[in-house]
Amino acid sequence: MDEIEHNVEEREDFTGIKLRPSIIYYPKNEEEVVKIVNYARERRIPVISWGAGTSLSGHLKCDGCILIDMKYMNKILEINDIDWYVRVQPGVNLEKVFKEVESKGFFLPPDPASFFLCTVGGATANSSGGMRGVKYGSFREWVLAVKVVLPNGHVVKVGEPLRKNRGGYDLVHLFVGSEGTLGVITEIWLRLIPKPREPTETILAYMRSFEDTAFVITEMRRRKILPDLAEYIDGDIIRLLNKHLNADLKESDGGALLIVVGKDAVKDMLDILQGRTLELKIAEGEEADELYSVRAKAVLALKAESPNIIVEDIVVPISRLTDAIIKLKEIERRENVRMPLIAHIGDGNLHPNIIADTVKEPEKLFEEVGRIAIDMGGSVSGEHGIGYQKANLLKEQVLKHNGRDVLEIMMQIKRVIDPYDIMNPDKYVELAYKLMNE
C-alpha cells in the first residue's frame, strides 16, 4: 500500500465541515481497496470514501478515520452502444462522463448542480438528483449495477447491465444512496438513452410573487405537461448571481422560473404564465445553455456571499408548494434571517439556504425547516442525503410516516452487511436509530 499519507492535515467538504483522518489512501484499483478495507476491519478503524468533497449533509465528517480518496480510480471503462450503458470507476468526474457519452450520441440525464465538480461514485452513493429530476429522476433510476468492496473484504457485483432484471432482491438500490455506510463502490454501470431528438424551448419567466410561481407549477401538472426542467430561484439568489457571477438577470422579488418544454407545450405554458410574470423570454441554442449554466452555478454565488451556509433539501407534495413557500418566508421574517431559496420546483424539491451568519441558532432553524416537509407528508431529503446533519429529522420522518419497525429493518440491514461498524459509522440510518432509542 504505497499510496498512503500519514499525519495528514484536515480536509473540509463543500460546506466547510472538517475531516481529520489519520490516514489518506489513494487506491489505483479494486485490489488495493480490498487491502485497505481488510486493514481497517482488523483494526476497527472507520472507513470513509472521498470523491470530490461536494457533500452537503455531513456525510464525510470523521476523526481518526481512514479516508479512501478515489482520485486515481477515474476511468471510463466502457460505453456500450448496443446495450446502452456506460461502465465507470467511482472517481471519474461526472461532467467528463456527460461529454464522453454525448460524443457517442447518448444522454445521461441526472445532473446535480455540482456535476462539473462531483464524481460518479459520490453521486451514486448519495443518489444525487439535479435539475432534470422532474422528468428523469435521480441516480437511483439510472444505476443498473455496482461492484462493491464489503466490510468483510469480499467483492460483490449486484445488479446487471440490463433494462429488465428480476433476479432476486433489489440490492442495487440498497447501495445506491447508502452514503458509504455499507461498502466501498468500485465500479458502476449507468443506463444511457439516445440524445433526445424532440426540439425544446427554454422559458425564463420573472415572477410577480411566490404564489404565482406555485400556481404555475400546479397548473402545469393539472394540464399534464411534463417539462424537461422546471427550476426556481428567488429574488435573493438573482441578486447574488448578478453580484458574484455577473449573470445579468432582471432583479425581481418574485424570483424567476426556468422551464424547458417540448415545442408542442410552449403555447400551453405561455397561457399558464399569462398575467403572472413581470417579464418573459424564450431562448434556444447557446442562450438556453447559458441560462442552464447560470442556474447550475447558483450555489457558487451563495458560497461567494458567505462561507457559512447550511444547505437545506426538503421535498413537499406539489399540492403543498404554496403552503411550504409561505412557511419558509414566515420563518425568514420571524427570525430576521436570510434564507435564499433555490428549487427543483417541478418535483417539489426545495433548497432553502440558511446563511448562518444571520441567525443565532442555525441548527435549530435547520430542523424547523425539515419539519415543514415532515408535517406536509414530504421528505427531509430529496437528493442531498442525510449524513449526520439530518439523522434526527430522518428519525422523525420515519417514525411519523412509516413506523418504528421500518427504522429497525434499516438498522438490521446495516448490522448484517457491516457487523464491524467500520463503514462511515455514526451517520445516516445508524445515527437515526441511536437517536430513536435514546
Throw out a few tags for this protein.
single chain; about 450 residues; alpha+beta; Uridine Diphospho-n-acetylenolpyruvylglucosamine Reductase, domain 2; Uridine Diphospho-n-acetylenolpyruvylglucosamine Reductase, domain 3; Alpha-Beta Plaits; 3 domains; five-stranded antiparallel β-sheet; 15 helices
Topology:
Blueprint: E1 4-6, E2 11-12, E3 18-20, E4 23-25, H1 30-43, E5 47-50, E6 62-63, E7 66-69, E8 76-80, E9 85-88, H2 94-103, E10 106-107, H3 120-126, H4 133-136, E11 143-149, E12 155-159, H5 172-175, E13 184-191, E14 193-194, E15 200-207, H6 210-222, E16 229-233, H7 235-245, E17 256-262, H8 266-273, E18 277-283, H9 285-296, H10 298-305, E19 309-311, E20 314-315, H11 321-335, E21 341-344, E22 349-355, H12 362-375, H13 391-401, H14 404-417, H15 428-436
Parallel strand pairs: 3-6, 4-7, 5-7
Antiparallel strand pairs: 1-4, 2-3, 8-9, 9-13, 10-14, 11-12, 11-13, 15-17, 15-18, 16-17, 16-21, 19-22, 20-22, 21-22
Helix pairs in contact: 6-11, 7-10, 11-12, 12-13, 13-15, 14-15
